[in-house]
Amino acid sequence: MEAGKNIRPTLGERFKRFWKEFAQQWQLQTMAIPGVVYMIIFSFIPIYGLVIAFKNYTVIDTIESAQWVGLENFKIIMEDRYFWQSVVNTLGISFLKLAFGFVLPIILAVMIYELRDSVFKRVIQTISYLPHFLSWIILGGMLITWFSSNGMINGFLNLLGFSANQNHMLDVGKYWWIAALSDVWKEAGWGTILYLAAMSKIDPTFYEAAKMDGATRLRQVWSITIPMIRNIISLNLILSVSGLFNSNLDQTLVLMNSQNQPKAEVINSYVYRIGLMQGDFSYATAVGLGISIISVILLTITNIITKRLNDNKSVL
């Protein structure tokens, strides 16, 4: 054997090292145990239930006794026009959310970071965070009232000289925009937290050197701030793209009504309606499994693209 060559530790040696390190960090490890148990019970064990997608399962069956139908449920999905309409709605709303909701937190974070008055900065941060802590039950009620015939939106439009007295929540052509922009309004402030945390670690000497070179504030943001938070931007992009098929179920259930349903029904609400309300568990599971697989594929593709744009360094 060559001198100095590393010898791979045996399984027993690695097991002893694990328990030694565990004993040294037993306080932290003990705090992590409840989270691990929670993930095992609610995330890993339920994976076995995905077999329902390949069976004709009913409430009077067990998973083992249900009739095996193979890919029959997936064939039905391909022919279900209501499912495909929910896919179109999901992608339409998600792309609007991505277009506005991905860029706006970055811009808002930069604007907050550039503020010099600490009191005013805290006030702006608090105001921007507040909608995140309100449930969609509350926000949905507010939106329904605002967009009603006698609501705030029509009142504002009348002040501008427009004749407006319609209930915008009943207009199917406007629902995508209402759903997307209201979600952006709710989460934009909360989305600045990671960016502000990353900006706080930027060395101030970079900005001082840029000022000495005559760089304007806008140039400093573009050449220093944005490149320094590139990894966080890439990570959020990956997560946003991988979630294109996962629209907000709470928001949909609150804002959807019989008039706007053709444009409001998204995949999550469709699965909820078919699976829980109509009891077709096998079909709903098949839809959920298919969407999960597509989401993993989008996650992988986006990670590869961002890795190539980030000097072959992955943020995952």
TrEMBL record:
It is found in: Cell membrane. It is a multi-pass membrane protein. The keyword Transmembrane applies. It holds the Pfam family BPD_transp_1. GO terms for cellular component: plasma membrane. InterPro entries: MetI-like (IPR000515), MetI-like_sf (IPR035906), UgpAE/MalFG_permease (IPR050809). Keywords: Cell membrane, Membrane, Transmembrane, Transmembrane helix, Transport. GO terms for biological process: transmembrane transport. Residues 87-302 form the ABC transmembrane type-1 domain. The chain crosses the membrane at residues 36-54, 87-113, 133-160, 221-245, 281-305. Belongs to the binding-protein-dependent transport system permease family. This is ABC transporter permease. It comes from Enterococcus asini ATCC 700915.
